[in-house]
Specification:
Helix content is 41%, strand content 14%. The chain contains 7 helices and 7 strands. It is elongated, with a radius of gyration of 20 Å. It has a 5-stranded mixed β-sheet. The protein has a two-stranded antiparallel ribbon with strand order 1-2. The protein has 2 domains: 44 residues, RecR Domain 1 (Helicase, Ruva Protein, domain 3); 125 residues, 3-Layer(aba) Sandwich (Dna Topoisomerase Vi A Subunit, Chain: A, domain 2), CATH 3.40.1360. Helix 1 crosses helix 2. By secondary structure, it is an alpha/beta fold. It binds zinc ion. The site of zinc ion has 8 residues, from loops. Zinc ion binds next to loops.
């Protein structure tokens, strides 16, 4: 067993890291003192301890409510429905949106069932009932799955009155995922959002 090789192989599995980057990280770590290595090790070991799902929106959280839902400065009248936490993260990193989110926790896939699960639908409707938003933005990706998810969402939302339902305008690359959209593209698609037909 060789910890250097083992760790390099472990890093190679990380998204976006190849052999070269994995080696660079390991050599960087070899230059750190033991205390720093212990600190990094325990950060990883504790990453999922006490991790929960926000009881309002489905985001990951270490508290009952996530930092976004418990932030008094967020606009609770605008609710953006995203497919997953990666998409939420893309909006947050771009700093272009001040409303709140709802994380569906998956897409409707052509290979799986045709609809959003009953549990997800109930969770979403409960959130909407609590917030009473004036606008609901459907922010699914411009993919086959994203479109199917949108149609399924429209069915779930069909009895929602008093809220404008909009969808991102797609300057986003077709077939691309929101997660990988750059800030400008994301900003444009959000700013030019339009009512869902
Ligand atoms: Zn939340």
């Amino acid at each position: 067993m060789n910890p250097i090789t083992d760790l390099t192989n472990a890093f190679k599995k990380f998204p976006g890291l190849g052999n070269k980057s994995a080696s660079r990280i390991v050599f960087y770590l070899l230059k750190q003192n033991e205390a720093e290595l212990d600190r990094l090790g325990s950060l990883i070991a504790n990453l999922k301890k006490n991790l929960k799902v926000c009881s309002d929106c489905g985001n990951l959280s270490y508290e009952d409510l996530c930092p976004i839902c418990s932030d008094p400065l967020r606009d609770r009248k605008t609710l953006c429905i995203v497919e997953d936490i990666e998409a939420l993260n893309a909006f947050e990193q771009a700093k272009i949106y001040n409303g709140v989110y709802h994380v569906l926790g998956g897409q409707v896939s052509p290979l799986n069932d045709q609809d959003i699960s009953e549990g997800s639908a109930k969770f979403l409707l409960k959130h909407i009932k609590k917030l009473r938003p004036s606008e609901i933005i459907i922010a699914t990706s411009p993919t086959v799955e994203g479109d199917m998810t949108k149609f399924s969402l429209m069915e779930v939302l069909k009895n929602i009155k008093n809220a404008k339902i909009t969808r991102l305008a797609f300057g986003l690359p077709l077939g691309g995922s929101i997660e990988f959209a750059d800030k400008l593209t994301l900003h444009t698609s959000l700013a030019a959002r339009r009512p869902v037909e």
